[in-house]
Design a protein that fits this description.
The complex is a heterodimer of chains A (302) and B (285). Chain A is mainly alpha-helical. Chain A contains 14 helices and no strands. Chain B folds into 2 domains: 36 residues; 212 residues, MetI-like (MetI-like fold, Orthogonal Bundle), CATH 1.10.3720.10. The chains are: A mainly alpha (302), B mainly alpha (285). Chains A and B meet through helix 1, helix 4, helix 5, helix 6 and helix 8 of A and helix 1, helix 4, helix 5, helix 6 and helix 11 of B.
């Protein structure tokens, strides 16, 4: 009887599992296996050449013991959090305002949308090369403009300025966020605005009572993605500093530090411990956002 | 009445002025890339700086397109073709399973798969490096292509699944009555209806793959320059730890331009769907 039931259950369900089987395999091979290995590495000393040794929490302890590794850990964590705290809110507000400005169906507006989106297409490695050239103190075009217009010069890449410079560079990607907002505006039923107009609402009231609440799912999505993305900044900063993290490690991001630890120092145990700490931070922040997501409006039927 | 009209016009004028100003700022990198790529080495490194080249000089492009450029280009195209075709196909099949077939564990598995997006890439990248080194995948194109064939990325699956769910169930039922098997229904009945989102996925995969710097940087080291993709090839040529770094800014900018051409062409073709079609049709999941 039980065997019969089992057979029937397989017959009813095998097709779906067959279709999703590539993902099952993919998650097992390229996510679950490495994730478990990473946890095991983080609890050992391991470097590829020698077999794993010394089971224990020493890699996690090393993050707080005042050694060079712990200095780099704290520095890169600080840099990354500073970046996230500055970049996420400003970019959310900026891209939202931009989308409001461009939320109109006209030819001219469309051309502006295209222009604003273009910098998103610049590959990370090109972004780094390009801005190194533009901001070069001797022959960079930025300093020439400063000198000719304001008669000053400015070194954008010193340890005091490089983080601000980097954040400014990242803002050239505003077009990417903007188009998600524009898509969100399009999903708001036009009838709502018509009804509001009949009731005598002005444009500001429409914005605060219809557009904003109706785009909260997208705000939520962009916020979560912003957190996950900002804490993992790598390519642009890596190229801009030639992989060094800049003078005084002022632009050493968390993932750059892991990369160095693993692939230059071949300290896979420590690198794995570092990545688990990052995972815990991301998971906690995401959890907080989810827990406080009462402001997200999912429509009447929910 | 007239005062109101003038005020309205003034507001619109200010709006457009602001928009134009921002457009100039955002186009500035392109201006620099283009002008400097047409300079000679002397012009590009002269002091005081020259803003415009004296004449259109293509020598930097000739210098940029050396033998290794074509090797990197070939590698990039191989990776691109496999990921765009294989990855997109794989993402579509998996999404179809999630959205159109009822089976036990469907929603639970989808939730688990989606939650892996929270896992930072670096957690798995470090052990994968060790695993790849054991099976001889380091310094080959395999780490850049094979993983993509298993589902093609959660973001893409999520997007296609959302779209597939908006297709009425009756299409599947009608196809079943006509005796079509699930695979035929998947490709001959449903696929034509969701072509826009599948195309969008392919374009997104193209862009991500073309620009990807991190994956090749991790799994291909600078002893295997014949396996470089363009992104790492350019990096190592100008910035990496190789001793004879090429510092010519005009050649750098020419390479930047060359590297942007394919993305710009794809963008020109699909700009409407890229700029307006990213509707996530409800993020309720």
């Amino acid at each position: 009887m039980n065997a019969e039931k089992f057979k029937k259950s397989i017959r009813n369900n095998y097709k779906g599992w067959l279709f999703v089987s590539p993902l099952v395999l993919g998650l097992l091979l390229f996510t679950l296996y490495p994730t478990v290995s990473s946890l095991i590495y983080s609890l050992h000393d391991t470097d590829l050449v020698h077999p794993m040794s010394n089971f224990g929490l020493q890699n996690y302890a090393a993050l707080f013991d005042g050694s060079n590794a712990s200095r780099l850990f704290l520095k890169s964590l600080g840099n990354t959090l500073l970046y996230a705290v500055v970049y996420i809110p400003i970019s959310l507000v900026l891209t939202y305002l931009l989308a409001l400005l461009l939320n109109k169906a006209s030819r001219a507006v469309y051309v502006f949308r295209v222009i604003y989106y273009l910098p998103v297409l610049i590959p990370g490695v090109v972004v780094g090369l390009l801005w190194q050239d533009i901001l070069n103190v001797q022959y960079g075009i930025a300093n020439i403009i400063l000198r000719d217009l304001f008669d000053t010069s400015f070194d954008f890449l010193t340890s005091d300025h490089i983080m601000a410079t980097f954040i400014a560079i990242q803002f050239f990607g505003v077009g990417g966020g903007m188009i998600i907002w524009i898509a969100s505006f399009k999903s708001i039923p036009q009838s709502m605005y018509e009804a509001a107009k009949l009731d005598g609402a002005n444009r500001l009231q429409c914005l605060t009572n219809i557009t904003l609440p109706m785009s909260t799912p997208y705000i939520f999505y962009n916020l979560v993605m912003g957190i996950i993305g900002s804490l993992q900044v790598f390519a642009n900063a890596y190229v801009l500093t030639g992989g060094t993290g800049g003078d005084g490690d002022a632009l050493l991001f968390y993932v750059m530090n892991i990369y160095e630890t693993a692939f230059t120092q071949l300290n896979f145990g420590l690198a794995s411990a570092l990545s688990w700490v990052l995972f815990v931070i991301i998971a906690l922040l995401t959890l907080v956002v989810f827990k406080t997501s009462k402001w997200v409006y999912y429509g009447e039927e929910m | 009445m007239r005062a109101v009209q003038t005020k309205k016009t003034a507001v619109i004028a200010v709006k457009y002025l602001l928009m134009a100003l921002l457009a100039c700022v955002l186009l500035f990198p392109f201006f620099v890339m283009i002008t400097r790529s047409f300079m000679t080495w002397k012009e590009a490194t002269s002091y005081p700086v020259q803003i415009l080249p004296e004449s259109l000089n293509f020598s930097s492009y000739a210098e940029a397109m050396n033998n290794s450029f074509f090797i990197y280009f070939k590698n990039t195209v191989i990776v691109l073709l496999i990921n765009v075709v294989g990855g997109t196909l794989s993402a579509y099949i998996v999404s179809y399973g999630f959205a159109r077939i009822r089976f036990k564990g469907n929603n639970a598995f989808f939730a688990i798969a989606l939650s892996t997006m929270m896992l930072p890439g670096i957690v798995s990248q470090v052990p994968l490096y060790v695993a790849y080194s054991k099976i001889g995948w380091l310094n080959t194109l395999l780490p850049l292509t094979i993983p993509q064939l298993f589902g093609g990325g959660m973001v893409n699956i999520f997007l296609i699944r959302q779209y597939l769910r908006s297709v009425p169930k009756s299409y599947n039922e009608a196809a079943m009555i006509d005796g079509a098997c699930e695979l035929r229904t998947c490709f001959e009945v449903i696929l034509p209806m969701v072509k826009p989102v599948v195309l969008l996925t392919a374009v997104n995969t193209f862009m991500a793959c073309w620009n990807d710097f991190t994956t090749p940087l991790m799994y291909i080291d600078n002893t295997a320059s014949d396996k470089f993709t363009l992104a790492v090839g350019i990096y190592y040529r100008f910035l990496g730890a190789i001793t004879n770094k090429d510092k010519a800014p005009n050649v750098q900018m020419a390479l930047c331009i060359l590297m942007m051409i394919p993305s710009l062409v794809i963008f020109a073709f699909f700009q409407r769907s890229l700029i307006e079609g990213v509707s996530l049709t409800g993020l309720k999941g």
